[in-house]
Amino acid sequence: MRTRQQQKVGFDDKSSLRSNPDWEKPKLVTECDRVARPGYSFQKAHEFVDEADVLAAKINVLANMIKASKNMIVYSGAGISTSSGIRDYATHDQNAIGFQKKKVSGFDCLPSIGHRAIVALYRAGYVKEWIQQNHDGLPQKAGYPQSHLNEIHGAWFDPSNPVVQFDEDLRSDLFARLLEWEKKTDLCLTVGTSLSGMNADRVVKTVGRKAARHTRGILGCAIINLQETGLDDICTLRIFETIDTVMEKLLACLGLDLVEIPDFLSDSQETFVVPYDEDGMLDHSCSMEISMKVGSNLKITSGTYKGCAATVVSVTKQGHFRLRVNPETSERPFLTPVGKWWFQEAERGELPSIPVVPAPATTSEVNAPKTKKRRNQ
Q1: Under a CB-based contact definition with an 8 Å cutoff, are residues 66 and 72 in contact?
Q2: pLDDT (average), residues 322-337
Q3: Segment 110-164, tens digit of pLDDT
Q4: Are the C-beta atoms of residues 205 and 231 closer than 8 Å to each other?
Q5: Is the CB of residue 46 less than 8 Å from the CB of residue 32?
Q6: Residue 356: which of 312, 288, 291, 299 has the closest Cα?
């Protein structure tokens, strides 16, 4: 039985140049009468897929939009990581396409086809910024640069950016960066998110409304999701299919290849020389050596645990570093990974800041971590 919402699902007729109102509506493949995100949205957790011919036509439209874009961003939610083994919030029916049955630690998951395809789009010059609601580090594991990634809701592989709970404030520098891209993007590729009213959803809403007003040079937002979302009514293009399927076909349409997953484990480097100061800020006049060997003592540079001591305790099975963090509060010490990509990019001076720096030899030492000026002042 089709719902009332399904009757209106489809496309904004005002965007007829890029979305064809004569396309057949997507078919209902999973009926689930539960609300997808209770307390945040009213959309039910039904799943839909486009007919094959309609899907092909939509992907062709999307490819043309991407080629026409000058400031394209990606905005991703939990749905992009379900095929990697991480559950999302909005899928409830165990027979649903998007329901994740695997039992895999989120820290050990590998990137999906969707992640790898977005890296290919970035390397081809199409994607300029990726705003990631997830915490899983899968974009970077796929080879996407940290320098062009905004982990707006926190990150598992960055001890300076703890996960933000739903009622907590977003990190000010990351929010400012999000606002900057909200203003200048002309196309937002939105994947795997229910768009249920998070503050960060504004990057989709703003460009969508600009396109609806026919703002010059604005292409709007393209949404890829099996379920309906809270912003379907303002999107330029709406695709109902799994993200992996769409992204693989999109690359073929653009003549691009899927990227290989980097092998961080085979890179045994544990000492990095980086142009950052003792506070972890980029300074090309400085040179700092950071040892990530087991037993090395570090200091977290920013965020909730700014100034806290951390010790490298092991290397993960994927080649990243595991730290034991000692909070300065009554909170107990805890383990957390930090991605090797941080130090690889830092060596090239591509990041405005880094999450850890060497700690003084003793807690009473007042001298800063040893840095040298690369040139005389």
Answers
A1: yes
A2: 92
A3: 999 999 999 999 999 999 999 999 999 999 999 999 999 999 999 999 999 999 9
A4: yes
A5: yes
A6: 299
pLDDT cut 90: percent of the chain above it: 75
Quote the pLDDT of residue 376.
38
352 is written with which tokens?
A: 């405005």
CA distance 137 to 290: 22
Longest dimension (CA), the chain: 75
Q: Which two tokens stand for residue 377?
A: 């002042």
Please tell me the predicted confidence (pLDDT) of residue 102: 59
Q: Give the model's confidence band at 101: pLDDT under 50 very low, under 70 low, under 90 confident, else very high.
A: low
Q: Which H, E and C letters describe the chain, residue by residue?
A: CCCHHHHHCCCCHHHCCCCCCCCCCCEEEECCCCECCCCCCCCECCEEECCHHHHHHHHHHHHHHHHHCCCEEEEECHHHHHHHCCCCCCCCCCCCCCCCCCCCCHHHCCCCHHHHHHHHHHHCCCEEEEEECCCCCHHHHCCCCHHHEECCCCCCCCCCCCCCCCCCCCCHHHHHHHHHHHHHCCEEEEECCCCCCCHHHHHHHHHHHHHHCCCCCCCEEEEECCCCCCCHHHCCEEECCCHHHHHHHHHHHHCCCCCCCCCCCCCCCCEEEECECCCCEECCCEEEEEECCCCCEEEECCCCCCCCEEEEEEECCCCCEEEEEECCCCCCCEEEEECCHHHHHHHCCCCCECCEEECCCCCCCCCCCCEEECCCC
How far apart CA 300 and CA 227 sit, in angstroms, is: 40
For the residues 63-84, what does the mean pLDDT come to?
96
Q: How far apart are CA 123 and CA 257, in angstroms?
A: 11
Q: Are 208 and 190 in contact (CB under 8 A)?
A: no
Q: How many residues in total does the chain contain?
A: 377
Q: Given a cut of 50, is residue 290 above it in pLDDT?
A: yes
Contact assessment for residue 48 and residue 58, using Cβ atoms and an 8 Å cutoff: no
Q: CA distances (Å), 232 to each of 71, 137, 173, 204, 257, in order? A: 21, 27, 29, 10, 30
